[in-house]
User: What shape does this take?
Amino acid sequence: MASSLTADAEDELRSFLAADLPTPTSRRAATSALCALLAEPLAYDYTRRLLTSEADAVAQELNEIAGQQSPTRWPPEGAAFCSVRQARDLYQPALARRVQFLLQASADPNGMVLGESQADWDCPPQSPLMCCAIHGWQTVAQLLLHAQAAPSQADVSGGTALHYAATHGEEELYNLLLKAAADPNRKDTYGRCAWELLETAGVALNFLQTRRQPAQLQEAGLQIVRMRVDSLLPARFVSDFVALKRPVLLKTDRAGSQSPIDNCGADGRSIPWSCEDLSNRAGDARAMVSAIPYGSDFGLDASLETPLTLRQFLAAPSVPAAPAVKRQRRDGAQVVNAAPPYFFVAVDQELQPELAEALETSLGLSAGSQLPWPLGAVQTGQKLPFRATTLQFAVGAEGSGSPMHFHQDALNLCLHGRKRWWLVPPSEAAFSRCHPLDALEMGMSAKDVKDCFEGACVFEQEEGDIVYVPDMWGHAVMNLEDHTVCVAAEFA
Assistant: This one.
């Protein structure tokens, strides 16, 4: 739970805590600490760590910080899934105790930090109350409101905590803010009120409210928004989707009928993204291959991961990365199933130079560079006002895929094949090491895993389609065709 404070800020805070009366500089230190603490990626860090061997130690540490007399035990036996809500229940008491400590140290509940001139007040990108709305920290929000936090404070985009609660699906926070007299009619810079977001298809809170309606009224509201990519200018994509954290499936004309598995077209040349093309251009790229991408980061035995080059993987892509095991279907039948391995790697210029060059040459994508619009369309000359922070490249056989997970904003381009997606709002996101085949077909004992999939927005992505997955939206993916190839660009 350490906050990102400089040594000077820590010294100022300690100095203030030893003093009887607050001073401007000590209040600044306490406010800086409050903003830094609430800006930490707690949902990412703790949800992931609670699936690893660190889980018990992490839970004990949080209980000690919170001063709980009846500590919560974690993990449940055999846990292969941790939702942001489960993690939040564990870390929020500790977080609330730290926040209360800082508020008692005269931290400004609105996060207004005295500037260098000590004459002007600087506002953080997101106020403490906005951070609570994003992450569903109801207990912390109540502390801030009790300390006179302004419920309708706006950020540089005009968004308020109500806007953030709507876009992240935090209904309890939304209602708490309304009771605290937050203004639902205050418009952001795009002219949108918070209450209007509740009526906008694809916005997280609209999705959750639609799901509670009778079945005949649910269908349209639970489908992902679909648009022709050539009808969407970059500015509109930013205003209508990125600003609202609203997923969208961008459709394109499906590519030619020649399969990349066939390797060569009529002219005898290698087809882009075919096995031969990838082997020739980026065959030396290496990844730790398993049925679960980055499985060891989520508590899986590292021995289940096999170091392979892309060329080696393409030579035998359907060989199971782990022994087949017997599982029980929901109908009671016993089946033997092993999920196919998935070549999934974060593209690094130094570690995979050939793969990085292929993505930059063919798609105009490189880490740190501005994203082309549409993704992968070099010839248009249009750019998004975002830069790629991480590029992920993946190729796998039918049935390979990724468990439920979440990350920052990302655009996913299907270069070949077809994929099925399961998408859930941030308030229901999770990290899992349970493959979609297990969660859907094999009757997992963990009810939360099945519920997460069964309540999701489900859709298919075809060759050439682009999926925008907003920050913190949970998603799982399964490839529906052999040699499904995709690239994803996380951005900020």
Remarks:
- The CA atoms of residues 66 and 94 lie 4 Å apart.
- The radius of gyration is 24 Å.
- The first helix runs from residue 7 to 18.
